[in-house]
Structure formats: C-alpha cells, structure tokens
Amino acid sequence: MRKTEMAVQRCKTMSRIQKILGGKWKLEILYYIGFCDVRRFGALRRQLGEITESSLTKQLRELEADGFLIRQDFQEVPPRVEYTLSGLGRSFMEVMDCMKTWGNCNLPEE
Q: Dihedral angle at the C-alpha atoms of 99, 100, 102, 107, nearest 10 degrees?
C-alpha cells in the first residue's frame, strides 16, 4: 500500500472511540463522576443542568453497556442508584485530564 493510500484510510480506533463517547453529554458525565465524585442520578442531572431525564438515562445506560460505568442499585425506597467508573472508565480519566489541560491552555473562555 502506498503512503498516500494509507493517509486517507479511516482510523478505525478513533472511529470506535467517537462512536462510544460521541453522545452530547458523555464526556461531561464521565468528568463529573471521575473527577467530582458525583455519583447519583439526581446530582448528575442537577450538575448538567440542561439535560432531560430521558437523555441522562440513555447516556448512562450506553456508558454502562460500553464498559465505562458500573451501576449499583441499592434496592431501597426511595430508590437509590449510584454510578462509578469501571476499570476502563478509570483508565480513561488520564485522557480526560489531558483534554481538560489542553482546553484550558488553548480554548478561550466563553
């Protein structure tokens, strides 16, 4: 394969990462759970502000299905569910930290 052909090939790894983490809220959800210790559904919803309950539920379920989160249901009344990072999610926090540092250095504040 020629060098020019290699340059235009789609990067399958980046495509897979984008597919998993491409949801509108997923990076923020991981950030709040990983760095701010926000674990409960209601607290996440308040932290994110504009997200609907159904969108948050969908994003959390997808992150759990993709192996980034662990959901713990305490089977209590009133219901209590907490989310924590899995090993995969914890390993991604180093990447998130680099992204945050880069953003702080290179992106103007709004």
A: 120
- Cβ pair 26, 44 in contact under 8 A: no
**Do 59 and 25 contact (CB within 8 A), yes or no?**
yes
Q: Which residues make Cβ contacts (< 8 Å) with residue 96, sequence separation at least 6?
A: 27, 30, 31, 34, 35
Closest CA to 47 of 61, 62, 63, 29: 29
Distances (CA, A) of 97 to 1, 2, 48, 83: 36, 36, 19, 20
This prediction's pTM: 0.85
- Bridge partners of 40, per DSSP, are 82
pLDDT attached to residue 37: 92
